[in-house]
Amino acid sequence: MQTIKSPYNFRGGIHPAYNKKLSNGSAIESLPLPAVLSVPMSQHLGAPAKPCVKVGDEVKKGTLIGAQNGFISAPIHSPASGKVKVITDVATASGRPCQAIVIECDESNETEFLPPIENWQKSDKDDLLTRIGETGIVGMGGAGFPTKVKLSPPMDKPIDTVIINGAECEPYLTSDHRMMVEHAKEIRIGAEIIRSILGAKTLRIAIEDNKPDAIKAIEDAFQDIEGDVAIAVLHTVYPQGSEKQQIYAVTGREVPSGGLPMDVGCVVENTSTTFAIYEAVIKGLPLMQRVITVTGDAVQKPANLLAPFGTSYQDLIDACGGFTEDKPAKVISGGPMMGFAVSSLETPTGKTSSGLLLLSKKRVSQYSSQACIACGRCVEACPMNLIPSELSQFIEAEDIEGAEEIALMNCIECGSCAFVCPAHRPLVQHMRRGKAAVMAKRMAANAKG
Amino acid sequence: MKPENQPELYIISSSPHTHEGSSVERIMLDVLIALAPAFAASLYFFKLDALRLTGTCVATCLIAEWLCRKAMKRESSIRDLSAVVTGVLLAFNLPPSLPTWMAVAGSLFAITICKQIFGGLGYNVFNPALAARAFMLISFTGAMTHWSSSDWAASLASGAADAATGATPLGLIKEAVKTGASIPHFSTATIMKLASGNINGCLGETSALALLLGGAYLLYRKVITWHIPTAYIGTVFIYACILHMVSPATSALPHMHLLSGGLIIGAFFMATDMVTSPVTKKGMLIFGVGCGIITMLIRTVKTGSYPEGVSFAILLMNAITPLINRGCRNRVFGTKS
Predict the structure, then answer these.
(1) Comparing A2 with B278, which gets the higher pLDDT?
(2) Closest partner residue to A419 among B18, B123, B280, by Cβ?
(3) Is the N or the C terminus of chain A less surrounded, counting Cβ atoms within 10 Å?
(4) Which of chain B's residues have a Cβ under 8 Å away from the Cβ of A390?
(5) Angle between helices A184-198 and A271-278 (to 10 degrees)
(6) CB contacts, 8 Å: A248 with chain B
């Protein structure tokens, strides 16, 4: 095991104020069990899970309450023991309404877990994959893609490199950072499980150089590991945690446009996901909780809280001592670069909730946008080498095809362009709208053909 | 007062929720700060004329900008400071003796015809100050090429200069090129004067040192990048070197080309105008090289009648900027070309 400075740098990127000091020294704390949990059936990419309990049913911690509904989907388990109070629609962080099972928690703390897989090194690869699927593990870095699917590439796409993503490039967020500092040993086992499932020769732990304590903890935990394993220390630049940029930074390989990491022999897993795999295999725990960073200048005591899914933002804020005098003007699920602004503190957490950011009025930038002055700063900032200025003008003029021709669909919505735009143009909003129009067009074409 | 039980309202907007803090106003302010040394130099050399013309141009541009937005029923854009920048740049491109009314006419043309008719800042095809200068050069040819506030030409190159009207260094060179006479000899003292700005020429373009200081500030503030100025000035230098090597008798020394005329102000302040120059680095380099070649063609081709080519070179390159942008996109991540 060695620590290497990554020799590759992706083009573009930005250096926002990271503001991680608010919470990166706070050890992970368990949230006291909330009285009520509203567990959304859609906490992942793909089809929402189907409720498989009825109102009034008693559930235990770990009871399956939402059944996987299709190939790209994931099951949902009750994060606490209690009784199903109601099944209703809630607004999730992304703003989309979705079904949620509301559980009135009790103190009995009865559990219904899966049996641990003894001696996982000797077990069948398919058993491990089944376990990852049945415990509902999805990518916890943000996308929520079902991990079982990600770890089952077709035969013609051999994987030689597994990258554990500990970059956590979003400003303010520190949940992955704390996971690495406090659970490096578990992450190591999770990483070894992933490597063995994929039969990958190379394992890299990618960490930005602004987290020296995480690098140290991982170094210690991985010391005696065998094979081609290394910590890839990355420059601190946003979006270093973006899958494509990270694969390039670690291996020098470019995921082809429209392609997937497996096209270049790579799989990237987030550190929290890796920890979840450890818990699923070694302890038999379904994915029911995660560490979420509650931070920002509008909350009293920023913290990294281990909270069950379905916890309302209000409960998280209460656990952090409530608001400061400034009160939040904006409530963001996730980080300031890619997170979603939410309208209600009743919003429940889910598998991809890495952060809750509460910004007071003085931290919230509201601008009216101006015409593009073609300064080219977005072009410099774009890590995908697009021309955001031109793309946004095409989309503004409703020329979606024109935008598509100049590679609109390659946009990863990282927000670097809008961050640097002196005319404060809502570039990401334009991209999202344009991409949605292209997707709608493609769906229509598919339906016809 | 907010009624009881009404939930707090939070701001909803698309990500990102943070910004580096840059603004169009700040960029324009930086350009103005960068132009301050050149303005000080022009005040020193041209005294009240510098104040008169710069004041006239800035005031007229601001009024024209305000009136245009009012007439178009659009939000006022006075505060973005772009009209001030246009006014200063136009004034810096005028001869000190120019009548005030002509400066007013030029400023009106710059803001209304060259900028607001296209939709205002960001939509203009040509740099407004340069386009207005071209308009004035054609409309008021006499006044726009009349240099009288220095006895420089008479004392240094009396053979070729018309002492009564005065002439710029490039004017003298062009005259020599056209008549087939040998290029006037410029002493070291002359070159020092060129660098400091103690010569005939437009208000703000004469002091190369003051302009370079401003250019350095723009680079430091990352308002501009090195690409356009370097490509532009480098091309002019190489072109002039080649000419001088081929025919030393009939071509000026390369540093004469660099220090005289509007090259420095053009390369740092006009060619780098964001709106009318390419957005990619590759495009910027092509743009700069194109500006350099056209400038030298205008300056040195015998049949031409203009001694100076910076304005027209940049305007011509402005016109093909959309084409350059189209041809110089970066290779998208994960694609072959």
Answers:
(1) B278
(2) B18
(3) C
(4) 279, 325
(5) 80
(6) 333
The percentage of residues in chain A with a pLDDT greater than 70, rounded to a whole number, is: 100
Q: Which residues of B touch A340 (CB under 8 A)?
A: 15
Q: What 3-state DSSP class applies to A123? A: coil
* Complex ipTM: 0.90
**Cβ–Cβ below 8 Å for B17 and A385:** no
Alpha-carbon span A219 to A229, nearest angstrom:
11
By mean pLDDT, which of A89-98, B208-217, B295-304 is the weakest? B295-304
What part of B 48-87 touches A (C-beta under 8 Å)? 80
Residues of A in contact with B8 (CB under 8 A): 327, 345
Which residue in A has a C-alpha nearest to residue B24's C-alpha?
A422
Dist CA A3 CA A160 (whole Å):
19
Q: Which of A327, A385, A432 sits opposite B14 (nearest CB)?
A: A432
Which residue out of A395, A419, A420, A429 would a mutagenesis test of the B interface target, given it has the greatest number of B Cβ atoms within 10 Å? Answer: A419
% of chain B residues with pLDDT over 90: 63
Count CB-CB contacts under 10 A for residue B99. Answer: 12
**Can you give the length of chain A in residues?**
449
Give the SS3 label for residue A198.
helix
User: What residue type is assigned to position B68 of the chain?
Assistant: C
Q: Any idea where the domains of chain A sit in the sequence?
A: 2-24+115-283, 377-448
Question: A261 to chain B: which residues are within 8 Å by CB?
Answer: none
Q: What is the pTM assigned to this prediction?
A: 0.91
Strands A58-59 and A36-40: unpaired
The answer to whether B7 and A91 have CB atoms below 8 angstroms apart is no
Mean pLDDT of chain A, nearest integer:
95
CB contact under 8 A, A327 and B8: yes
Interface test with B, best of A375, A384, A420, A421 (most B CBs within 10 A): A375
> Which chain B residues are within 8 Å of A426, Cβ to Cβ?
13-14
Secondary structure of chain B as H, E, C letters:
CCCCCCCCCCCCCCCCCCCCCCCHHHHHHHHHHHHHHHHHHHHHHHCHHHHHHHHHHHHHHHHHHHHHHHHCCCCCCHHHCHHHHHHHHHHHCCCCCCCHHHHHHHHHHHHHHCCHHHCCCCCCCCCHHHHHHHHHHHHCHHHHCCCCCCCHHHHHCCCCCCCCCCCCHHHHHHHHHHHCCCCCCCCHHHHHHHHHCCCCCCCCCCCHHHHHHHHHHHHHCCCCCCHHHHHHHHHHHHHHHHHHHHCCCCCCCHHHHHHCCCHHHHHHHHCCCCCCCCCCHHHHHHHHHHHHHHHHHHHHCCCCCCCCCHHHHHHHHHHCHHHHHHHCCCCCCCCCC
Task: Provide the 10 A C-beta neighbour count for residue A12.
Answer: 23
Encoded amino acid at A187, one letter: I
pLDDT of residue B162: 36
**Partner-chain residue, chosen from A371, A384, A415, that has the shortest CB–CB distance to B332:** A384
- Average pLDDT score over residue span A120-146: 94
Q: Is B12 on the interface with A (CB under 8 A)?
A: yes
| pLDDT of B194 | 64
Contact assessment for residue A307 and residue A289, using Cβ atoms and an 8 Å cutoff: yes
Residue B177 has pLDDT above 70, yes or no: no
Round to whole Å and give the CA distance between A349 and A329: 20
